[in-house]
Every structure is written in C-alpha cells, then in structure tokens.
Amino acid sequence: MTAEKNLAYGWITRAGRILFIRREPGTFLGGRWELPGGTVEPGEPSAETAVREIAEETGLTVRVTGERATSSWPDITGKPVTINATVFDVVEDGQGEVTLNPGEHDGYAWLTPAEAAERDLPDHVRRILS
C-alpha cells in the first residue's frame, strides 16, 4: 500500500499578480519558486493548513474563498508515497507586508501567470498556471 502525503497551497493575488516564494538554496527543491503552503497535519482540514502555512511562510493573514485545483503525483525522491496537493483561492485580510520565514524561503515576487511560467517552478505549480 502506498502512503499519502497531503499538501495545501494558497493562490494569493494583488492587482492581477500571484504571490510566489522561492525556496532557500540547500533545502528540498532549493531555488525553485512555489506558492505559499505546506503539509497538512493529521486531522487538520486542508483549507486550515493553507491559512496556517501562508501565515508561517509570508506573515500574511488570509481566508480561503474556494478551491482552485487539485493534483496527485508519485514522490519525486522515489519513496512509495503519493503526493496530493490542493490549491485554494485565498484573499488577504488587509494588505500586509510579506515577511519570509528565514531558512525556508529567500525571495518572493508578485507575478503574472506568464512571468511565473518563466521561473523555475515545480511541475505541479506549472500545471495550474494555464
């Protein structure tokens, strides 16, 4: 039986641009751009994970307004794990300053889908841009 790992991400927009954050070099997928989000804890609803992870990674306070996309794929390191990801549409409660969590991410950018497509993105993020 294959284990499962569930991830939840937030699609945050300002003026038609989406917030992307860059993973710190030396971390898993270091240097790649992604949406803010992370691992769903046991018993935690995915939407709550997205809100919690966005706060931890960016300092922004958000609320979920809907589900944008879901996808699944086998673990890229070869472990017998299926990764399930949900991307939620979220809106900010006010427009706070993005404050990254040091040691995890080292950059952020507000990008259009076309600009984001030119960055080094994980496949599951690239798929939802179109």
UniProtKB/TrEMBL annotation:
<feature type="domain" description="Nudix hydrolase">
    <location>
        <begin position="3"/>
        <end position="130"/>
    </location>
</feature>
<keyword id="KW-0378">Hydrolase</keyword>
<dbReference type="InterPro" id="IPR020476">
    <property type="entry name" value="Nudix_hydrolase"/>
</dbReference>
<dbReference type="InterPro" id="IPR000086">
    <property type="entry name" value="NUDIX_hydrolase_dom"/>
</dbReference>
<dbReference type="Pfam" id="PF00293">
    <property type="entry name" value="NUDIX"/>
</dbReference>
<dbReference type="InterPro" id="IPR020084">
    <property type="entry name" value="NUDIX_hydrolase_CS"/>
</dbReference>
<dbReference type="InterPro" id="IPR015797">
    <property type="entry name" value="NUDIX_hydrolase-like_dom_sf"/>
</dbReference>
<comment type="similarity">
    <text>Belongs to the Nudix hydrolase family.</text>
</comment>
<protein>
    <submittedName>
        <fullName>DNA mismatch repair protein MutT</fullName>
    </submittedName>
</protein>
